[in-house]
Amino acid sequence: xxxxxxxxxxxxxxxxxxxxxxxxxxxxxxxxxxxxxxxxxxxxxxxxxxxxxxxxxxxxxxxxxxxxxxxxxxxxxxxxxxxxxxxxxxxxxxxxxxxxxxxxxxxxxxxxxxxxxxxxxxxxxxxxxxxxxxxxxxxxxxxxxxxxxxxxxxxxxxxxxxxxxxxxxxxxxxxxxxxxxxxxxxxxxxxxxxxxxxxxxxxxxxxxxxxxxxxxxxxxxxxxxxxxxxxxxxxxxxxxxxxxxxxxxxxxxxxxxxxxxxxxxxxxxxxxxxxxxxxxxxxxxxxxxxxxxxxxxxxxxxxxxxxxxxxxxxxxxxxxxxxxxxxxxxx
Length: 331
Prior knowledge:
The chain is an alpha/beta fold. It has 16 helices and nine strands.
């Protein structure tokens, strides 16, 4: 595992090549574009806004970064109606109520021999600040990420599902990596987190947020990179089966279907075929396991008639081990 960070920053992120190598070590096959965005995000202290279709590894990039850097992954899942209380902090009302009950029971003892109403109120006022102190503060993801001594990776997932008001609030927090709690004061990040926002383009994000972030688009991988991803995640898969199943999946993505198979579904399908002891693609295996690759019945119905042709094309290789499309098998 990579060495941990210090208060000065994330030490392993010394170069673009180091990021690519480090991510590969935890099973994430990066590209120069992805690694460059991560390197710049660290150096410029800017969030990365990642856009692209579902299932291309946007969330997995954040998780892989956290594993490589050996820091916590803190995730904020966005949804309509998400507000500051759920994202930043809340007061522990139950604990405050319990302490209020204790204070009520000990009221006479606490006031003691106070001679006047003013003296009594003065003694009670000493307890007012206690109820709004850090011990009663319930940190939510944004504040939790800033409180990590060794830094963290903060994943703000599907920001496009939140409201515009929350987007504006988030922009303020990420500008200086600090938050203000009126009863306590300003809380600054001990080590600014590496921030990744993801979007599936449910709605158009505001220009202000886009200006604050580095933009990164991740699409579905090409044949070679997807083979590398599957090989990194699936032990014991043969070159023949690997090349055929990836080529089949890429052909399926080009069809007119509701949901194109994600990278995770490619990996699951590879594991499924290994579990069935498949050494190469076979029409029967494919038909029986299409539900692993495709999640909508209409998509399965659309692809089923194409299976014979897609299997033949996926299996088309010459004796030199090259796919008919010209893509090489990876050893």
